[in-house]
Amino acid sequence: MSLIITDECINCDVCEPVCPNEAISQGVEIYEINPDLCTECVGHYDKPQCQQVCPIDCIPLNPDHRETQEALMEKYIRITQG
């Protein structure tokens, strides 16, 4: 699965710079995660970095974008190989 940022987001700006895939960007009201770029940091780190730095824990798994670990790794390879 990719991750999603919920309405509890306070726009603290800490998640965007730690995303290795540049999947996080400022939306209209809160930050948003592009599910086509989010790999839950698979291929980069053991844990999603945005979840690690979020001070209010508003970045859960996105139930609308279910993916296996293998699919996340394939996405990582596709993204990093350009």
TrEMBL record:
Keywords for the protein's UniProt record, in alphabetical order: 4Fe-4S, Iron, Iron-sulfur, Metal-binding
Keyword Iron appears in the UniProt entry: yes
Pfam families attached to this UniProt entry: Fer4
Annotated InterPro entries: 4Fe4S_Fe-S-bd, 4Fe4S_Fe_S_CS, PSI_iron-sulfur_center, YfhL-like
PROSITE patterns: 4FE4S_FER_1, 4FE4S_FER_2
Domain 4Fe-4S ferredoxin-type: 1-29, 31-64
Superkingdom field: Bacteria
Classification via PANTHER family: PHOTOSYSTEM I IRON-SULFUR CENTER, PHOTOSYSTEM I IRON-SULFUR CENTER-RELATED
UniProt-listed NCBIfam families: di_4Fe-4S_YfhL (NF033683)
Name this protein carries in UniProt: YfhL family 4Fe-4S dicluster ferredoxin
